[in-house]
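Title: Prediction job returns without error message
Component: structure pipeline
Severity: low
Priority: P3
Assignee: unassigned

Description:
Job completed but the reporter wants confirmation the result is attached to the right record. Sequence as submitted:
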Amino acid sequence: MLFSMSFDGSFTHAMVQELGQALTTGRVSKINQPYANEVVLTIRANSHNYPILLSANPTYARIQVTQIPYVNPPVPTNFTMILRKYLQGAILKNITQVANDRVVHLQFTSRNELGDQQDLLLIIEIMARHSNVILVDGAEGKILDAIKHVGSDQNRYRLLLPGAQYINPPKQDLTDPFAGPRPDLADTLRDFPNQEVLAQTLQHQYQGLGKDTVAALATALHQPGDVAQHFRDFFATFDAPQPTLTISPKGKTSFTAFPYPAEGSTQQTAATLSELLDTYYQDKAERDRVQQQGSVLIRVVRNELKKNRTKLKKLQRTLADTENADEYRIKGEILTTYLHQVKRGETSVSLPNFYDDNKPLKIALSNQLSPNQNAQKYFKRYQKAKNAVIYVNEQLKITQANVDYFDNIMAQIELAAPKDLVDIRLELQQGGYLRDHDHLKKSKKQRRQKVSKPDRFTASDGTKISVGKNNLQNDQLSLHTAKRTDIWLHVKDMPGSHVIIHADNPSEATILEAANLAAYFSKGRESSNVPVDYLPVKRLHKPNGAKPGYVIFTGQRTVYVTPESSLVEKLADN
């Protein structure tokens, strides 16, 4: 099996060692399933709580300790209930890897309802879209439940359904590299002197080597000296890892258990493999979860944007048509002046245009109307066009405001953490854009749903800073929570968060730090030199009937900053 990802069998080997050292003999204290394909078991070991993420996400499948916060669904899933029934309070006896495959067994012991001891296996299979988390009865080998049910229509080789016998994934006829090199290693190296070809050959001989691992192995084997010793040394490093994040010259990131050769790349290290994965996946997994959980919101906002942009184009075309209004007035006035020269029954007439040096102007007529009625018809068309201009300009203003509003919401969804979607959903419901879906039946409790709290940060000098992550939070923060003397910040002319410095006379450094937060939590996150306006809260004003998050202001000053994620993390940690 070819791996293109970094979480290959060898990385799994290192992770199993790390988890085993920290967690063995720990007790399961909490079980949650925050996302469809992901379970978090909190294990209490050595007076410390370790949240273990078992992810069967098709793109980001993995096992690790995670410190990334998550939000639980209001109702636990069936799989969560089964896990709680069997594993709540269970002791983790051992963590093992199947050969050098990406299959990890967590062996638990617990007491059943009768008080008898029972052995249980929680198995995670890290296999891209076939990834799964399966609970198995240790004595009988029967599946108690799986996070994804796989029937015979999907897989003839093995069923992954409650009650079925658990069968291991098909075994590969390859050598486990941690058992040492094959006797023909020196011959392989001699037969395939090209490093790339050697890497491909090794990948078909040894189990669980991803592309990056096998490329690093081929480089190591090409060094002068004993080739078998190089092989053993390379795999021994997985037992004493130096977790490494590599950023390529093109900005692509990858993670490895220790530094692999990478020309022109920058490398950062982490204290543990789990911390490394949190750094690597934080944004990627968050984006993915937001896309999954916010799919309905994204669809609604996209539709509203499309509808309003189409309307905007139509209105602009109508406005262009009404620019002929003056022409109708002129023709009406000329006809009125020269009525005596116009005969009934004519379809057109040429008359001197006194607005243009009396040059002849051809005017179309209706042969069914009298000369006076034809003139009145032009005046009516003029009046209609003039009225249309007023109406169209009003509609243009409203429609442009709608486009800006939904652009702003789309930017908020793009920057949101999963927990921030709750308020955005509520706002769209309150605005009548989101019909109640089955899982959001109207109830008194729902209608009285509280707006969540803004994110809190602390400037280097200890000043408190709040950041609203969506329109409802922004309104609450800027118009109700903040004092009139606090300082309000927002990126100039683009969607972004409202930021409040809770002080009336903050230092220049604090203003720059808060401006950095405003730029980071805005559409300008990837830009450099982002303009940020700031002013006292008392200069803010919300027009009557304005949409959530919309304010107008005067007397602002502007600073320019380049958003830095490291600074944002530092201010959050403060």
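Comment from assignee: result matches the submitted record. Residues 1-5, 437-447 have pLDDT under 50 and may be disordered.
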